[in-house]
Amino acid sequence: MLPFTFKSSPMNPDLAKNKFLFTADSLKKKFRLSEFLSEKIITSVAFLSIAVIILIFVFVFRESLPAFKPRGKQNIEQTSSSGNKPESYGSSDSAGALQKPESYNGAEPAAAANKPETYSGAEPVSKENKPESYGSVKDTSVSAEEVNPDSEFVAKDNNNEGTLGSLFSNEWYPVSENPRYGLFPLLIGTFKVTLIAMLFAAPIAILAALFSSCFAPPWLREWIKPAIELLAGFPSVVIGFFALMVMATVLQNLFGYQTRLNSFVGGIAMALAAIPIIFTITEDALTAIPVTFTEASLALGATKWQTAVFVILPAATPGIFAAVLLGVGRVFGETMIALMATGNAALSGLNPFESVRTLAATIGAEMAEVVFGDMHYGILFLIGSLLFIFNFSINAIAEFYVKGKLVKKIQGR
Amino acid sequence: MKEEKIVTRDLTLYYGQKMALNSINIHIPEKEVTAFIGPSGCGKSTFLRCLNRMNDLIPSVKITGEIRIDNLDIYQKKIDVVNLRKKIGMVFQKSNPFAKSIFENIAYGPRINGISNMKALTEIVERSLQNAAIWDEVKDRMHDSALGLSGGQQQRLCIARTLAVEPEIILMDEPASALDPISTGKIEELIFQLKKDYTIVIVTHNMQQAARVSDHTAFFYLGELIEHGKTRKIFTTPDKKQTEEYITGRFG
Amino acid sequence: MKLKNKIIGGAITTASALSVVLIIAIIIIIIVVTVIGGKEKISWEFLTAFPRDGMMNGGIFPAIYGTALLVIIMSIAAVPFGAITAIYLSEYAHEKSWLAQTIRFAVRTLATIPSIIFGLFGLGFFVQFVGVGMDNWFLGGQLKWAQPNLLWASLTMALLTLPVVIVSVEEAIRTVPRELREASLALGATKWQTIKKVVIPGSISGIMTGTILAVSRGAGEVAPILFTGAAYSLATLPTSFSDQFMNLGYHIYVMSTQSSNVDQTLPIQFATTLVLLMLTFTLNLTAVLIRSSLRRRVK
Fold first, then answer.
1. Which of B30, B95, B86 has the alpha carbon at shortest distance from B53?
2. Contacts of A334 in chain C (CB under 8 A)
3. Nearest-by-Cβ selection for C128 from A89, A92, A372
4. How confident is the model at residue A13 (pLDDT cuts 50, 70, 90)?
C-alpha cells in the first residue's frame, strides 16, 4: 500500500466521490482568455518587423518626392515664426561658444580656401595634419550672416525648375546660386571607396576565415572567431576617427601623395568595417561543408592545404560570394567613416588618391542643413532611396541566388 | 474482470505519407500494468503518445480511428486537450526535470491548476514525493536545484511530479532505459506499488522487465499490434508465431 | 613536384595565418593608439564635468548623460518588442508558413539596412509625420514635436537594434530543450503557461545578451542621430522627450571635423573616443562571454 492514497484535493474534486474523471462534461473545451490574448498579442507584435520595413520603404520614398515637386513656401513661413528654425537643428541650441554650422544660402562660396566645391582647382591642403573642414563649413557662417536671410527662399524658388535634369550631370553643387544635383561624382566616389575597401577586405577576411576553419586547431578557433567579432563591435565613428587622425598621416607618409584624406584612406578604413562581416559569413560557409568532404580528401592522400583550397573552398563558393556581397552592401552605405576620412569633395576622377564624396556621406553631411520639403531635401532622400534599393537587392541576391546555388551544389545538380 | 479503461478502435497514424501505426485495436484494463513490447521503431512509443494526445504537437501527424477512455472518445473536436493531459500523466525516457528547485518541480503541476496556497502546495509536494519513494532522499534539500540529483533520483522526481497532478492513468515511455540496475529496480518496485491506484501503461524494450512488472502485455511490430493479452500467457504460450520468435530472441 | 607543393602549401597556410594576425593586430593598434592619445585626459572630472571654454577644457558629462538616456529609452522600446517577436518565431510560428518566412526576411533585411537610412526614416516618419501629426492634433499647430529630439532619436535607434535583440533572444529560446516543453505540456499546462514558466526563465541569458548588444550598438552609432536629435553643444541636460541631447559618438564626429581649434582639443577628442571605445568594447565582451557560456552549457 502506498503511504498516502487518493485524497480529495482542489484539483480533482471528483476523485473523492469516486466518479469517473473522463466525462464529456469535465473535458469540455474550455476557452482560456489568457491563452487567446497572449497568442493574439504576440502574433501582432511579430508583425511589427514587417510593418517597419514597409514603413521605411514608404516614408523614405515619400520624402524624396520634393525632388520632383518641392513643397511650397508655406512650410518655411510657418516655422520661421516660431523660435526654432528647422534649418539649423543639430547645433541650434548650443550655448554659442562654438561656431555653429549655419544653413547655406545662395551665397557662392568664394574665398574660403577649404571649401570642398573648389577642390578641383586649387590644392589647398598641404601635408599638414589638420583635418579639413567639410560639409557644414564654419567659414561660410560669416558670409551667411551677411546675406539677407530672406533671400534664401527667393533664390531657391527661382532655381527649382530645371535642376532636376542635373541629376545626371557631373557636378554636385547643391548650395550654389544655380544648384546642380549631379549624382555622377557621388556614384564615382562611392564606387572608388567600395572597390578599394573590397580589394583589401575580401582577401584578408577570406584567408583569415580559411585559417580559422581549416588550419587552426579547435581551441584556437574558439578564440579567433570572438576576437574578430570584437572588431565588428567597434563603432564606425571610432574607426573613422582612427583613420582621420592616425591612418591618414601614416599612409600619406608611406605613399607620399598630396591629398591627406582621399578615397584610398577612406577605402582602407572601410575595409576595417567590412572585414568582420566577410570573415563571419565565410567562416560559417566553410565550416558548414560536411566533414565527410574533408575526410574523403584526406583519405585520398591530400594535404590539409590541398583539401582546404581544392575541396572546401570551391564547395563554399556560394557562401563566400554572399559574404563579399554583404561586405559590399555594408561599405556602400557606411556614413561616418566616409564623412571623416574621404575628404568630402565631390570629384569624379579615377585617381584613388583624390578626395571623394560618397552617397551616404552626402546625406549625412547635408541633411542637417536643408530646408524641410525643398528640392535639396528631396534629392537627399532620393539618394537614400537608391541606397535602400541597392542594399535590398544585394540582400535578396545574396539570399536567394546563393541559397539556391548552395543547395544545388550539395545535392549534386 | 477489471473495467476496460482505455479502448482503441482501428487507430491509424501517419507521419506525412508514412504510416506509423496500422489499425490498432487494443483494450487496456484499469488499475493494472500494461506493457508495450517490440523492437525499436515499431510504433510503441508513438502509440503511447497518442493516448495523451502528445502527437498533436507534431504538425505532420494525421490520426484516424478512435481512442476511448472511460468510453469517451478523446479525439473529438470538443475535447479540451489541456484538461485531458491533467488526467493522464507521462514519464519520459530521459528524465526532464525543470531547471528549478525540487520543490518547484513538484509544485509546478498544482500551481498551473491554480493552487497557490503555500500550505496546500507543501502538503501536495510532500505527499507526491512520498508516493514516489524519494521523500527520504530529498526532504532536506527541497530548495536545491533538481538538476543536482542522480539520474535515478531525477526519474523518480519526474514520477512524483506526475503524481502531484493526481492523474488516473500514468504513461511511462521506457522510464528506466537510461538508468543503472539499482535505480531500475527501485522504479520497478514503485510501479508495483502505484498500480493499486493508477492505470499504468509502460513501454519497454526490456522483455524481462515487462515480464517482471506487467499484468498485461501487448506486442507491437512494424506499426501493427501483433498480439496482446495476459503477460503470463504472452510469455509462455503466445498465439502468434511472430510473438514467440520475438520472445525467444530470434529477432529484435 | 613535392617541393613545389610544400612551398605552395606553406605559403597559403602562412598567408592565412598572417591575415588573422593582421586583423587582431589592427584591433590592438586601434585600442592602443586611442589609449595613448586619451589617457592623460581621463579623470573623474572629465567624466562628470561639463565642457568649458568652447570645448577646450572641462569634461564630457553631458555627452555621456545624453548617450545613456538615448540607450535607455531605446532599450525600453526595442527589448520587449524584439523578445516578443522572437517568442513568436520560435513558439507560435509554423516554420514553413508565409508569415514566419516573411518576418524572418524582414528581420534579416532590417539588419543590413545602412544606418543612415534609419536616420532618414527617423526624419521622414517620426519628425515629419508623427511629430507633425502630434503638433497638429494636440498642440493646434504649435511647433514642438515636429523637430529632432531625444524621443525620435531613441525610437530610430530602437528600430536599428531590433534585429540584434530578436536574433539573440531566439538563439537563447532554442537552447531550452524540447523535452522540458513536453514535460510541461504533459502535466496539463497550456502553451502560454509553458512559455511563461519554462521557456522565458530558461532564456533570460539570451534576453540579457540581446539587450547588451543592442545597447552597445545604440551607444556607438552616429548616422541615425545626425539629424534626428543629437546636438554638439547644449548648455543644459535634456529634461524631456522633446529636448535635444548630446552624444559621445556625435561629439567625436563634430569635434574632430568641425571644431575651430583642432590641435588644442585633440587630447579631448582622443579621450572621448577612448571612453566610447571602452564602453562598447566592454559591453560586447560581456555579451560574448555570456553567449559562449550559454553555448557551453548546451553542449
1. B86
2. 114
3. A372
4. very low
Helix axis angle for B102-112 and B118-131, nearest 10°, is 110
Decide if pLDDT at C61 tops 70: yes
Give the nearest chain A residue to C275 (CA atoms).
A238
Which residue, C56, C47, C52, C45, is CA-closest to C235?
A: C52
Residues spanned by CATH 1.10.3720.10 within chain A? 184-411
Distance CA C145, CA C147 (A): 5
For residue A22, give the nearest of B72, B113, B193 by CB distance: B72
What angle do helix axes A359-366 and A375-396 make, rounded to 10 degrees? Answer: 140
Q: Is the pLDDT of residue A149 over 50?
A: no
Look at residue C201 in the predicted model and tell me its pLDDT: 92
Bridge-partner residues for B14, per DSSP? B19, B62
Name every residue whose Cβ is closer than 8 Å to that of residue A201 and which is 6 or more positions away in sequence: A270, A271, A272, A274, A275, A278, A327, A331
With 50 as the cut, is the pLDDT of residue A99 above it? no
Dmax over CA atoms of chain C, in Å, equals 85
Compute CA distances B141 → A74, B40, B105, whole Å.
Answer: 76, 38, 13
DSSP string, A197-253: HHHHHHHHHHHHHHIIIIIS-HHHHHHHHHHHHHHHTS-HHHHHHHIIIIIHHHHHH
Q: A78-82, A396-400, C164-168 — which is least confidently predicted?
A: A78-82
B114: closest chain A residue by CA:
A11
Per-residue pLDDT reduced to its tens digit, A227-261: 898 899 999 999 999 999 999 999 999 988 888 89
Would you state the pLDDT for residue A20?
A: 55
Cell of C31: 585600442
- How do residues A189-225 score in pLDDT, each as one tens digit? 999 999 999 999 999 999 999 999 988 898 999 889 8
Q: How far is B84 from chain A (nearest CA, A)?
A: 6
CB contact under 8 A, B92 and C179: yes
Averaged confidence pLDDT in chain A: 74
Which residues of chain B lie closer than 8 angstroms to C201, CB-CB? Answer: 99
Q: Which amino acid is at A206?
A: I
Q: What is the DSSP string of A302-369?
A: --HHHHIIIIIHHHTHHHHHHHHHHHHHHHHT--HHHHHHSB------S-TTS-B--HHHHHHHHGGG
Q: Which residue has the cell 539649423?
A: A88
The CATH architecture annotation of domain A184-411 reads Orthogonal Bundle (1.10)
C-alpha cell belonging to residue C180: 522540458
For residue A7, the distance in angstroms to the closest alpha carbon of chain C comes to 19
| CA-wise closest residue to A200 among A299, A125, A267 | A267
Domains assigned to chain C? 39-298 (1.10.3720.10)
Residue A126 has pLDDT above 50, yes or no: no
Amino acid at A146: E
Q: Taking 90 as the threshold, does the pLDDT of residue C246 lie above it?
A: yes
Please, are residues C115 and A237 in contact by the beta-carbon 8 Å criterion? no
Burial code (b: 16+ CB inside 10 Å, e: under 16) for A289-304 equals beeeebeebeeeebee
ipTM of the complex: 0.91
Pick from B94, B96, B157 the residue to mutate for testing the C interface (most C CBs within 10 Å). B96
**Chain B to chain C Cβ contacts (< 8 Å):** 62
Check if the beta carbon of residue A315 is closer than 8 Å to that of residue C59.
no
Nearest to A132 by CA among A240, A247, A261, A249: A261
pTM score, two decimals?
0.82
Chain A residues at the B interface, defined by Cβ less than 8 Å, are: 1-7, 9-12, 15, 20-24, 26-30, 32
Mean pLDDT, all residues of chain C: 89
Nearest to A213, CA basis, from A284, A156, A122: A284
Q: What is the mean pLDDT of residues A92-116?
A: 33
Distance CA(C105)–CA(C95), nearest Å, equals 13
